[in-house]
Each structure stands twice: as C-alpha cells, then as structure tokens.
C-alpha cells in the first residue's frame, strides 16, 4: 500500500473525518457554505472578467473595479478552498480516485496561475490602460481563460456529486 493510500485511510479514520461524514448536519452545512461562497465568488469573478472584456461596468475605471472586487474575491476563494478541503476530508478514500476531482484540482491550479500571470504582467500596469477605451489584449485573454476555467471547475464539481456514492 502506498504512502498516499495509507495517509487517506488514516485521515478517513480520524474523529473529525468521521464526524463530517456521519453527522446529520456537518457535511450538509459545509457543502452549503461551499456552494454559497462559490456563488459569491463567481458573481464577482464574472463581473471582473466581463469588465476586462469591455462588456459591463465600462464607465468604471478598471482600478476601481479591482479595488472594490478583490477583497470579496479573496475572502470567497479562501472560504471555498477551506470548505472544499473539509468536504474532501469527510471521505478522502472515496474522493481521491475521482477523475472529476482530479481534473477540478488541475483547473484550480491553472485558474490560480492565470490570476498570477495577470497580476504580474498586464494587471501590474493597470494605471497605464485604466481609462483607455479598449482593454489590452492580454487582459481579455486572461478574462476568457478565467471564464472557461471557472465554468469547467463548476461542471467538474457537479460531476463529482453525481459520481461519488453518498456516505453510507
């Protein structure tokens, strides 16, 4: 048995994992918070991406949109990661081999890299194009990549729910 499998079995047998898996309210509360936070996060992320594409909020400077949305995006993303981790911990042996979970994790990494590349390149120079009539091409590419990745992440999240058996 490999190290990962041993760790997952140990994790699954912890009191915390057992509580989340077997309690009447533990898993449903965590999942509800996960989905509600996803909704909050995606709402702001989509508005930001649509602004980068020049499709909404065009009368507002991009720096204002970033300043206003980033705190909500950071809080939402942090809570999503925490609750997603808790959902995984509730049944790690079942979740770990799930193909949709693995694809979702890879896409989350790509989404994070997309934000990192945006923030270290075109986003760093937002003051230069803040009031320009057209958003730079790199910003539009980042927005399209973000929209596609988050749509796929949500789809994989839903697929996980349909391919993992409910706790027994």
A few lines on this structure:
It contains 8 helices and no strands.
Alpha-carbon distance between the two ends: 24 Å
Strand content: under 5%
Count of discrete structural domains: 1
Shape: elongated
Question: What does it look like?
Answer:
- This protein has helices at 3-12, 15-22, 26-52, 62-90, 92-95, 99-120, 126-129, 137-163.
- By secondary structure, the protein is mainly α.
- 21% of the residues are buried.
- The protein is built from 8 helices and no strands.
- Helix 3 packs antiparallel against helix 8.
- It has one domain.
- It is 78% helix and 0% strand.
Q: Which descriptors apply to this entry?
A:
elongated; single chain; mainly alpha; 168 residues; 0% strand; 8 helices
List the helices and strands and how they pair.
Blueprint lengths: L2 H10 L2 H8 L3 H27 L9 H29 L1 H4 L3 H22 L5 H4 L7 H27 L5
Helix pairs in contact: 2-4, 3-4, 3-8, 6-8
């Amino acid at each position: 048995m490999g190290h990962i499998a041993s760790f997952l079995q140990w994790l699954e047998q912890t009191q915390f994992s057992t509580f989340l898996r077997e309690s009447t309210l533990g898993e449903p509360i965590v999942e509800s918070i996960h989905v509600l936070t996803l909704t909050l996060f995606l709402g702001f992320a989509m508005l930001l991406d649509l602004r980068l594409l020049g499709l909404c909020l065009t009368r507002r400077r991009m720096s204002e949109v970033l300043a206003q949305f980033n705190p909500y995006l950071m809080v939402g993303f942090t809570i999503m990661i925490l609750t997603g981790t808790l959902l995984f911990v509730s049944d790690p042996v079942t979740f770990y081999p799930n193909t949709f979970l693995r694809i979702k994790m890879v896409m989350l990494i790509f989404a994070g890299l997309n934000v990192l590349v945006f923030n270290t390149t075109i986003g760093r120079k937002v003051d230069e194009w803040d009031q320009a009539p057209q958003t730079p091409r790199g910003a539009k590419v980042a927005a399209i990549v973000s929209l596609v990745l988050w749509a796929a992440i949500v789809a994989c999240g839903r697929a996980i729910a349909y391919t993992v058996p409910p706790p027994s």
